[in-house]
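Progress narrative, work stream C.
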Amino acid sequence: MFEELLKVAEEKLREKGDEVDYESVIELAASLLIEGTNEQEEANVKRVMSEHDAFLKRNRDRWELGFIKLHALRETCLEAGMNFQKQFIKIPKYETDELIGVFMRQHAHACRITGEIIHLLEGGYPDAALARWRTLYEMVVTCLVIKKCGRNAAIDYIKHGMVQSVEGIEEHRKTADAMGQETISDEEAESYAELKHNITQGNSGWHWAREHTGYKKIDKLREFVELDKWSHNYKLASRNVHSDYYEMASLYAMREAKEDMLLCGQSNSGLTEPAHFTAIALAQITSVFLTTYIEDNNSQLDYCDSTLFMKIIDNYVKEVGEAFLNVEKPI
């Protein structure tokens, strides 16, 4: 496709009396191409952005009710979480409580990730949205394991996060020179290594969940909390996270395709499952947070608001599924 450009470059070199060889022709052709590309860059990018904006409008119009319900669900979960937080922070014993602290942070992460998923769905990337849902699912499993095992599990979960941070520091020290970055001193590294040893007692296989369930892998933990029925969906989502070979036809985004093709952009198909799975997971995490210590008769927490919020949230989960399904399969 660059034959004419190569000829032009060769002619320019001859006109200037420069030596004409492969390298010099390629170098001049590349510089001419870069110059021309830069000149057209703004116009081309404006066209791409205009097409993107037009797609967003069409996609939002098509799935309008579904997006409204999903946005409303997320906002309700946020409001419910903030309402519960305002209540428990007034009780001194919960200011540093590990269990409620872990659930609060998981809930905040879940609300943020749901926003990311909505952005991907509106942008026409349902398979990327499903890949992001995978994280929500892992968070649901984590929250349910901790809820089932109690406050000590939450404490070990926090410790596990510290261990992972130390391992991240160790990895940074290995790669810092090659990446041209500064890293922490040997003295600091020893301090972090000591923290890791104190937590794990030198056990390289130490894991927060294994201490309480006997397991560390997600496939066993989801069985422990009876969520193994989602295993197929989780595996499907995992394929979109990792480098793997699979046919384009297996993508959610290709659900309404009339012929085989290589999808390398947006699609307004296949949004139903990623949207509904997201709604279910967000509701589950919100429920765990809003009902922290609900079995404790001495908790001093009032669950009236939480109960009402969960009624609204459960209804939204149902409405999200119905709204997206009605677009995909009109009644």
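Work stream C, second folded protein:
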Amino acid sequence: MICLAVTLIARPGAEDRAAECFRKLTEHSRTEAGCIMYQFHRSTDDPRKFFVYEQYVDEAALQAHNNSSHYAHYVRGEFPTLVESADLVKYVPI
């Protein structure tokens, strides 16, 4: 299993558009065969701060996600205009 923990900061004024983009990406990502968990969260203290927790059955499933058309559309296409920063950490179970 592969886990990703990603903290994202939306650009000022783009918080709600980012949240909608994240919701759409979540809908698509959850339909992927190798996706176990895909859940975005929004900070209760900072409306610009988001966190996504992802789990995939293996590295191939993660690569399939990264190569998907919805990933290209949202992450490569829309994120640059909506997201100021992203901190991604990959984990494996122990």
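DSSP finds three helices and four strands in the chain. No further action is required on this item.
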